[in-house]
Amino acid sequence: AQSVTQLGSHVSVSEGALVLLRCNYSSSVPPYLFWYVQYPNQGLQLLLKYTSAATLVKGINGFEAEFKKSETSFHLTKPSAHMSDAAEYFCAVSEAAGNKLTFGGGTRVLVKP
Amino acid sequence: KAGVTQTPRYLIKTRGQQVTLSCSPISGHRSVSWYQQTPGQGLQFLFEYFSETQRNKGNFPGRFSGRQFSNSRSEMNVSTLELGDSALYLCASREGGETEETQYFGPGTRLLVL
After folding, report:
1. In which band, very low, low, confident or very high, does the pLDDT at A98 lie, cut at 50, 70 and 90?
2. Which of B43, B94, B108 sits opposite A103 (nearest CB)?
3. Does A97 touch chain B (CB under 8 A)?
4. CA nearest B31 in A: which residue?
5. Could you read off the pLDDT of A61-71 as tens digits, one per residue?
6. Of A47, A54, A57, A93, which is the most exposed, with the fewest CB atoms less than 10 Å away?
7. Distance to chain B for A78, nearest Cα, Å
């Protein structure tokens, strides 16, 4: 069975500092990997996705993630945090196109001025 | 295109009652999936409907059911509500083709069971 682990349920960063959110997955087959963001009282918005093309994936709002098969990781980064990045971030995996998403526990990001 | 819409946005029910939630997918999308989000269990897959047929099901009791109509709109029903059913219920749609793997989420329906 698939599983997704996000290290750190809460992360606090200063405005302008690097944002690094960690995601490790377990999957028996090459997966599809996703990062979603959830703002308060809203649904999930897709940040970026990995679908076996380039291992470095660029998404919206300056975020990017690198797929590392040997480490079974898909960490999310943003070079410079902005106050608007305060939200909860979810890593998700799917074993096949269109298959159900299995989510990590989420990481809540706090941005300090 | 308009995004995924869910109604109602907020709902309060009492234990033992039943509830029906509605989801309208993005125009042209034929697949609708439902997820439950709670602080304790996180985001969990309920089921997926494609062309009016349930194609995939998560590990939830039979009190949770759904259906999809010919216009791809979907409803989810929870019978005999329990306190633990309090959650944010998210609907996601996608085109449904074999190569389309991105799910687009609606704003959710927040259900409170008293």
Report:
1. low
2. B43
3. yes
4. A98
5. 999 999 998 89
6. A54
7. 22
